[in-house]
Amino acid sequence: MIIRELDQSYFEKLKELFRSVFSAPPWNEDWSDEQLDSYMRELIEVRGSIIYGLFDQDEFIGMSVGKIRHWCCGTEYFIEELCIRSDYQGRGCGREFLSLIEEKIKARGLNTIFLMTERSQPAYEFYKHIGFTELPELTAFAKELG
């Protein structure tokens, strides 16, 4: 497995991978083309964005889309979206990908990886298992306007 930093020329491949993973169980998300296009552009066209791709030979099998975020405790890589192609899940690819990302961000002088996930999703246990710490002092809020 190798990691590469990607640029916007991978836009369509990022969307394709994202849709293939998150439209399948357990997420079963329904992304319209327009909504997904807008969402991915918001993520990759921001100042400080960093996009990593995981490759098995020339096969694009994983992505991490995030940004550099400056915070009082240091500078971090804030991962907005991370996924591994469904047929590669459960084979250690996610663990290896995050390990490779760690090396890359340390080389940039960043000191933290920050991400969020839902407690009810398998990713929650995965992140805990590979050494991420849940931050009990943080919570998320949303208000539906309808």
Order of helices and strands: EHHEEEHEH
The radius of gyration computed from the alpha-carbon positions, rounded to a whole number of angstroms, is: 15 Å
Oligomer: single chain
SS elements, strand count: 5
Return the CATH architecture: 3-Layer(aba) Sandwich
- What fraction of residues sit in β-strands? 25-35%
Approximate helicity band: 25-40%
User: Class by helix and strand content?
Assistant: alpha+beta
Quick synopsis:
The protein has 146 residues and is α+β, with helices and mostly antiparallel strands.
Characterization of this structure:
By secondary structure, this protein is of the alpha+beta class. It has one domain (2-129): Gcn5-related N-acetyltransferase (GNAT) (Aminopeptidase, 3-Layer(aba) Sandwich). Helices cover 32% and strands 28% of the residues. The chain has 4 helices and 5 strands; from the N terminus they run βααβββαβα. It has a 5-stranded mixed β-sheet, with helices on both faces. Helix 1 packs across helix 2 (33-44). It is globular. The model has no long low-confidence stretch (mean pLDDT 94).
